Amino acid sequence: MVSTTISEFTGDTDYVAALVIFLCTLVLVIWQPGGLGIGFSSLGGALVALFTGVISPSNIPTVFFIVWDATLTFVSLIIISLLLDESGFFHWAAILLAQLAKGHTLILFPLIILLGAVVSAFFANDGTALILTPIVVKMLQSLQFDKKATRAWVMSVGFIADTASLPLIISNLVNIVSASYFSISFPRYASVMILVDIVTVLASLSVLSIYFFRYLPRYYDITILPKAYSTVRDKIVFALVFPVLLLIVIADFVTTLYGVPVGAITALGAVILFLAASRFYQGGRGRVINLKKVLFNAPWQIVLFSLGMYLVVFGLRNAGITYQISRLLNKFTPHGLVVTSLGTGFVAAIVSAITNNMPSVLLIALSIHETRNYHGTLIYQAMIYGNIIGCDLGPKFTPIGSLATLLWLHVLSTYGIYISWLEYCQTYILLTIPVLVASTCTLAGWLKVVGISA
């Protein structure tokens, strides 16, 4: 665990300065004027915080220690996702499911939702939102679905991208940051969150079906679909997908017990697929995937964003804001695991929806660390995992809740699909609340079974 010592407020000036710098940085990250990018926007905020004394130079290595593994893991996962997308793997999977459903939309809908859940589990929520969404749109266009049906599908895929990103450490950058901060091993995390994720996916499928089935036609013409394997462009990368994924998951379960970072294992998987795509063993002959395009589209700005934004968040910690949040969390603890899980989950969800989930996860993690009286108890575990659930699901409340959602909305706009903020909030708040309740209540019950340590 990262060692931190949180004190009371250091003064009204520090408090106001830290809050203003945080809010201004958040606006720049979301707005990105002049194509500044999320990385340089957050670094600018960090530099202002440093020069004004809101953070100190000694905070920089502390924050770097928190974020480096999470950042390496995330970038590696996105590179893997881009390689698989270029190879045709996701397109193959979507077409295969459409063929398996044999023209029955009410069968295809849950299959696509479950595909989204699997992609989120192994390739993070960004992989589902940014890669699977265009593939689903193209599939729906091929099947000649109308605008209302297409809208229902893409909003369902966008929803499951976040709600199904709970089961593994690698499923969401939020998970990686939390696991790194609290020194949670890969097996321990999975033992707690896989069951929670199963319930969350089933709850998500239920609310999506109830809400969107009315817009879906009952049947579609399967004969206009191409053969699934015909969409595969790089057969070598395609053949390596499942072995590499199996390698990553098994290695993460085993090696994290010995202190090997998750990022190192995920990066190894990315290197294997990248080398296979490069055809280096054939001198580059037979190469299909544009590797320059893959590297160019990798989220390098996330590296700068992670360090910069979390330094700004550390300024909030130095000003005592995390101490105040910890006092709020402590109000839930006397009422047991269920109330603690629900309370922490909803606090994290609301903060994520307002301020974006990436800064909020560390902000609340720092606050949880301040609840010293509960260290080593199930209540403490409920707060840790409740924060993860809230920061994974809470971004669905508003379009600014996560950067992935903002990018997802941009991707949809390129296909002529526009979702207003009002429609977004009305739909997703209604859908997210029951799923968040189901997830946090399941967490509380399951923690009693798995105990404090794996």
From TrEMBL:
GO terms for molecular function: antimonite secondary active transmembrane transporter activity; arsenite secondary active transmembrane transporter activity. The keyword Membrane applies. Coiled coil: none annotated. Its main location: membrane. It is found in: Cell membrane. The keyword Disulfide bond does not apply. The chain crosses the membrane at residues 15-31, 38-56, 105-123, 152-170, 190-216, 236-258, 264-282, 294-316, 403-422, 428-447. GO terms for cellular component: plasma membrane. InterPro entries: Arsenical_pump_ArsB (IPR000802). This is Arsenical pump membrane protein.
